[in-house]
Amino acid sequence: MGIPRSTYYDPKKENMARKQQEAFLQNKIQEIAYQHPYYGYRRITAQLRRDNIIINHKRVLRIMRQLGIQAKIKRRYITTTNSRHNQPIYPNLIKEKIVTGINQVWCSDITYIRILTGFVYLAIIIDIYSRRIVGYAIGKILSPELTLAALKMALANREIDHLIHHSDQGVQYASTDYIKMLKDHGIKISMSAKGNPYDNAYVESFFKTLKQEEVYLWQYETFSDVIERIPYFMEDVYNSKRLHSALGYRPPEEFENLLTENASQEEKKAKTLFV
Question: What share of the chain in percent tops pLDDT 90?
Answer without folding.
Answer: 47
